[in-house]
Every structure is written in structure tokens, then in C-alpha cells.
Specification:
The chain has about 350 residues and is an alpha+beta fold. Among the domains are: about 35 residues; about 100 residues, Helicase, Ruva Protein, domain 3; about 70 residues, no CATH class. The chain has 18 helices and 7 strands. The strands form 2 sheets. The chain has a 5-stranded antiparallel sheet, sandwiched between helices. Strands 1-2 form a two-stranded antiparallel sheet. A hairpin with a 4-residue loop joins strand 6 and strand 7. The chain is globular. It starts with 5 loop residues before the first helix and ends with a helix. The N terminus is likely disordered.
């Protein structure tokens, strides 16, 4: 990265007033950003083969065997469709309320109840081991892969190699190395297919999530999140437990919040300032008793339950929700309020 101009550095040293220091910082950031952009633009993208050679060395250094790399990289070429999908993702402007209405259709709710009943014994076993309700597992399954009907058709290694080579996000290089680790541990390469972004199987796990959370629940010697329902449900349960799911607690509930109550909430309860975008779009946690004092009520007008629990407020255009600590496990799976609320509401409908 180029050094900042000398005259700019000198100017910042002699200005003692706070607002001038702020101006200097802003100018420095701008110049640094431009400099970095110019440096990046002047660095040509390596060929795909050169990129694979570089990844191969990283993988070897990480202990992945040459045989695995020979298998994974044999005849590998970029997938142009993947790059196009990544560069041209449409803006998601759907409101929370619209998303919930369109995703939680009568058909989806009916299918969820049918699948929950069909796999009740298996789901009960997973729920018993990991403490995650069967309804939540069914809901995640439904929203991730339409109850296993669509898991994606893109070869995972090719998709991730293409995205990593395109040099847009370091995430994909990390996930590519995780995918190679999976193969090295015995996952069949031909089984590893999923979305264009590398999410695999019925739970739609990225390779790093597979390595951390996938389990061989049916104990047949293979961890298969593509075709084995015991492994699918077990892996989802294990993921949510690792993400902090607390057995016996609910995820949250819909509440009634008038415009005057929202105004009081805005004055009394600040928004969160850390975490992913969804977490920053919810309030800090407060005891249920405080939400009651502020005027939040159950849908229908009844008072909130008297429980020693803290909750945060998530609001849509017309619907609002108080969410508890289990909600954060759902956000860990997919940090989107639309997704997490859809899972919670679908699970409640199954019950």
C-alpha cells in the first residue's frame, strides 16, 4: 500500500482542534482507500491454473493429501454461471411482513405438519439428544431445502474454486479448503453438490459448517447430509445446540405494539450496535416486565407472561416480535430476521 502524502501527514500533526483532526482522519482514510484500490487494480488476476496451484500449496501445508488434491482438481475449470450469479444477485427489497406471507403459505404449513408426522420417531430421537424441538428441525428442513426436495446441483468444489478465484471474498477460499478437508476425510466427491454459493445437502451446510456440526446420527460409518435423513436431522440439531439453543425455552412470540408504544420503546430501549446486520436491527434485551411496563402486549391484548426472561424486539411494517435467546441460534444458522422468524412461526404452526 502507498504511503500517505507527506503534506497531509504534516497537516494532521499540527492541527490540534478536534474537528480538524476528524477532517484529517477522513482525508487519510479516503487517500488510503484510493491507494489500496489502485494497487488492487494494478494486480492482474492469476490464471485459474495458477490459482489452483496456490490453493494446492495451502492445502498441502494444512495436511491435506496429494491424492485428495489430484482427485478434486482433476480437469477442474471455472463455472461462469456461478460468477454471474454472485455478481448479479438481485436486491432483496421485500419487507419482513411480505416475506412471511409469501413463504408461510397454507401449502408449506400443511407439508410441514405432514413431514413432522411422517418422521415423528426419528425427529423425537434427535430432539431428545440435542434438546432442539422436532418442530424447529422440521421448519429448518423445510425452509432450507423444501423438505429435502431441492438441495442444489452445482458441484461444490467447482463452485467454490470459481468464486475464490474470482477474488471477491476471502470466505470462499476458506470454504474451498474446508471442502478439500471433507474429501480428505472420506466424503465422496461425487456426493458434494449444492447451491451455486457452496451450501450443501438438505441442511444447506457450507463445508466449514459440515466439518463442525455434521454428525453420523444413523451410525453407518458415513456422515451423509444429502440422502440420510437421520444424518440430516441430527446435523441440524447438533448445529443449533452448538449455536446455543436452550432446551425447554421458546424462540419468541408475536406481540401487539401500537405506534405510541413504539415511540416509548424508541426512547427507552436502544438498538444493538454489534453483530450481523439482522442483530443490529433489533433492540437490546430487556426483562419481560419492562416490556410490559412499556405497553407491549400479546396479540389479542392480553398481558405478557410473568417470566424471568429477557427479550429483544424485532419489528416489521405491521408485525412485531419479542425474541428470546434461542432466536440467536436461528440467526446463527442464517442471520436474517425473515428466515429466523419464518422458522419460528412455522415450527409453532406444526405444534
Amino acid at each position: 500500500m502507498r504511503r500517505l502524502p507527506t503534506r497531509l501527514s504534516a497537516s494532521c500533526r499540527v492541527n490540534g482542534m478536534r474537528h480538524r483532526i476528524a477532517v484529517c482522519v477522513l482525508i487519510a482514510v479516503a487517500v488510503t482507500t484510493i491507494s489500496a484500490s489502485q494497487d488492487s487494480a494494478s494486480s492482474p488476476q492469476p490464471t485459474f491454473d495458477a490459482f489452483l496451484a496456490d490453493v494446492r500449496q495451502d492445502a498441502l501445508d494444512a495436511g491435506i493429501t496429494p491424492a485428495t488434491l489430484d482427485l478434486a482438481f482433476a480437469g477442474l475449470t471455472p463455472e461462469p454461471v456461478v460468477v454471474s450469479r454472485d455478481r448479479n444477485q438481485p436486491e432483496i427489497v421485500q419487507s419482513l411482513d411480505t416475506y412471511l406471507r409469501q413463504r408461510l403459505t397454507t401449502r408449506t404449513r400443511t407439508t410441514a405438519r405432514q413431514m413432522h408426522a411422517r418422521h415423528a420417531q426419528l425427529l423425537a430421537g434427535v430432539a431428545s439428544q440435542y434438546g432442539v424441538p422436532a418442530g424447529v428441525l422440521t421448519a429448518v428442513w423445510g425452509l432450507e431445502s423444501n423438505f429435502g426436495r431441492f438441495t442444489g446441483t452445482y458441484p461444490t468444489v467447482r463452485a467454490l474454486a470459481t468464486l475464490a478465484w474470482d477474488n471477491r471474498r476471502a470466505l470462499f477460499r476458506t470454504e474451498l479448503l474446508a471442502a478439500l478437508r471433507m474429501i480428505d476425510q472420506g466424503v465422496p466427491l461425487e456426493l458434494m453438490k449444492g447451491s451455486w454459493a457452496g451450501a450443501m445437502g438438505q441442511p444447506q451446510f457450507m463445508p466449514s459448517s459440515f466439518l463442525r456440526h455434521a454428525v453420523d446420527f444413523d451410525r453407518d460409518g458415513a456422515t451423509d447430509i444429502w440422502t440420510s435423513l437421520p444424518d440430516v436431522f441430527g446435523s441440524m440439531g447438533h448445529y443449533l445446540k452448538n449455536a446455543g439453543w436452550v432446551e425447554g425455552e421458546r424462540w419468541g412470540r408475536e406481540v401487539a405494539v401500537s405506534s405510541s408504544v413504539l415511540a416509548a420503546v424508541d426512547r427507552a430501549v436502544p438498538m444493538r450496535t454489534e453483530g450481523c446486520r439482522a442483530i443490529r436491527l433489533m433492540t437490546e434485551a430487556r426483562p419481560l416486565a419492562e416490556w410490559s411496563r412499556l405497553g407491549v402486549r400479546l396479540v389479542g391484548g392480553d398481558a405478557l407472561p410473568r417470566a424471568d426472561m429477557e427479550a429483544s424486539l424485532v419489528r416489521g411494517e405491521r408485525r412485531s416480535f419479542l425474541v428470546y435467546r434461542n432466536y440467536f441460534a436461528l440467526l446463527d444458522y442464517n442471520c436474517s430476521h425473515s428466515y429466523a422468524l419464518a422458522v419460528g412461526l412455522l415450527a409453532d404452526g406444526i405444534k
